[in-house]
Amino acid sequence: MDASIRIAQLLCSRLCHDLAGPAGAVNAGVEFLSEGIGEASEAAGLALQAAHQMTRRLEFYRAAFGRAGGAALDDAKRLASGFLAEGGIVLDWPDGPDQQELVADMPSVSKLVLNMILLGVESLPRGGTLGVRIATRTAATAVTVHAAGDGARIREDVVPAMDAAASIELLSPLNIHGHFLARLARDLGTTVRVSTVRDGVVELSAEVSSSA
Fold first, then answer.
1. How many angstroms separate the CA atoms of 93 and 133, rounded?
2. Residue 36 maps to which CATH number?
3. Residue 181 burial by CB count (10 A; 0-12/13-18/19+): exposed, middle or buried?
4. 211 FRET partner, CA 20 to 30 A, in 54, 66, 137, 142?
């Protein structure tokens, strides 16, 4: 099988898995309403909450994985905040004085940032804080994502997948995102470096040339 087709299949499997939970909750809430089970307001609230969660995830995934160019950086920040709204992870992404220049000159960077954020989320199995820092320089833009929390780590199966030239046999729905991130970074002429800063803190970093 062609590698690109296999990658698309694995990525679709991963996205469907992530959307199945809120979709099922919407369905359950509607069924409760239609069958008159429990309080109508409670069932409606369940369905509405799950629908909002599914919408936020879809918006995030469309910007992170979609064919369209990168979103504006401030919009990427909004999408990340919505994506993390109902989980146990706090987003720490302060506004920077040079972000508007970055938005205008390098919109593709925001797609890389969103994918780095997603890998950071995967590194926090018990929740924690996700710090995002972006700095523009003369020749490059530096992106750093810190994932800090109890048990923070990059799963062992993700590490080999974060090679853009990794064998297709190494890939699965659980690590396909790491591989997608590596290929995205390669297209931007960079690589994403992963390191354990200290116990409970994982750092992802990349530098994108201003000519990317």
1. 7
2. 3.30.565.10
3. buried
4. 66
pLDDT at position 87:
80
| CA neighbor of 79 nearest in space, from 93, 97, 68 | 93
How many residues can be counted in the chain? Answer: 212
CB-based contact 69:110 (threshold 8 Å) = no
Are residues 206 and 191 in contact, defined by beta-carbon separation less than 8 angstroms? yes
Domain count of the chain?
A: 1
pTM: 0.88
Residues 6+ apart with CB under 8 A from 84: 90, 91, 121, 130
Which residue segment(s) compose the domain that 40 sits in? 3-209
Bridge partner residues of 202 (DSSP): 147, 196
